[in-house]
UniProtKB/TrEMBL annotation:
<feature type="transmembrane region" description="Helical">
    <location>
        <begin position="30"/>
        <end position="52"/>
    </location>
</feature>
<keyword id="KW-0812">Transmembrane</keyword>
<feature type="compositionally biased region" description="Basic and acidic residues">
    <location>
        <begin position="8"/>
        <end position="18"/>
    </location>
</feature>
<feature type="transmembrane region" description="Helical">
    <location>
        <begin position="58"/>
        <end position="82"/>
    </location>
</feature>
<keyword id="KW-1133">Transmembrane helix</keyword>
<feature type="transmembrane region" description="Helical">
    <location>
        <begin position="188"/>
        <end position="210"/>
    </location>
</feature>
<protein>
    <recommendedName>
        <fullName>DUF4405 domain-containing protein</fullName>
    </recommendedName>
</protein>
<keyword id="KW-0472">Membrane</keyword>
<feature type="transmembrane region" description="Helical">
    <location>
        <begin position="140"/>
        <end position="160"/>
    </location>
</feature>
<feature type="region of interest" description="Disordered">
    <location>
        <begin position="1"/>
        <end position="26"/>
    </location>
</feature>
<feature type="transmembrane region" description="Helical">
    <location>
        <begin position="103"/>
        <end position="125"/>
    </location>
</feature>
Length: 213
């Protein structure tokens, strides 16, 4: 709070705990919205696995599209981790996730990167990828990812409606000010989807080597 000429205090937009930038609440809402998008995209990707012979092109396309939102979610969770462990007051007050979820966090990141990384490698290398068993690594990392993500989704799914709904509502927050940087959070999500779409459009033609085989 800042006093101007002895009159009514006004809100200081440079609060040291980061609330002016959205703070932990804004970070949580961004992570939730990104997680909801990823949940839908991964569900669609799962459907293509059931009919891979007919939906291989769509499988490739969605897999490449996922790269943008996955990078954004890793960034948002990594930012919270960094702010908490560097002692930012608002993030310290918010506290860390539950111990089990803290242990699963690195595994979620590692398996997600492994699934997408091996998928992109398969697209680039084609069916004749040489001695490296990339397809086997892709399948193994997918199995590990499903196991880890099942716990992760069950832990966080119930929070998504509240967090996303809070950001979509136009009702002003306390003191008559809107939630900080709401437009910025949704812009980041749209940008991540756009980046993923650009990657998918640029790389989906690589599936032709697999369909020819």
């Amino acid at each position: 709070m800042t006093v101007i000429d002895g009159r009514t205090p006004a809100h200081d937009t440079t609060e040291p705990d980061g609330r002016a930038a959205g703070g932990p609440e804004g970070n949580e809402r961004l992570t939730a919205a990104t997680g909801a998008v990823l949940l839908l995209l991964f569900a669609a990707e799962g459907v293509t696995i059931l009919f891979l012979g007919r939906l291989l092109t769509l499988h490739f396309f969605i897999g490449l599209l996922l790269t943008g939102p996955v990078v954004l979610k890793i960034g948002s969770t990594g930012y919270r981790f960094l702010r908490y462990y560097t002692g930012a007051p608002a993030y310290r007050r918010k506290g860390p996730p539950a111990p089990l979820l803290r242990l699963l966090g690195p595994l979620v990141v590692a398996t997600s990167v492994a699934v997408l990384g091996t998928g992109v490698a398969l697209a680039l290398l084609g069916p004749d990828s040489g001695p490296v068993p990339v397809l086997l690594l892709h399948k193994a990392s997918f199995v590990c990812w499903v196991a880890v993500m099942s716990v992760h989704v069950l832990a966080y799914l119930w929070r998504l409606p509240r967090l996303i709904g809070a950001d979509l509502r136009r009702r002003p927050a306390r003191h008559g000010t809107p939630a900080p940087l709401r437009a910025g959070r949704w812009s980041l999500l749209v940008l991540a989807l756009g980046a993923g779409l650009a990657v998918a459009l640029a790389g989906v033609h690589l599936v032709s080597a697999w369909t020819a085989r």
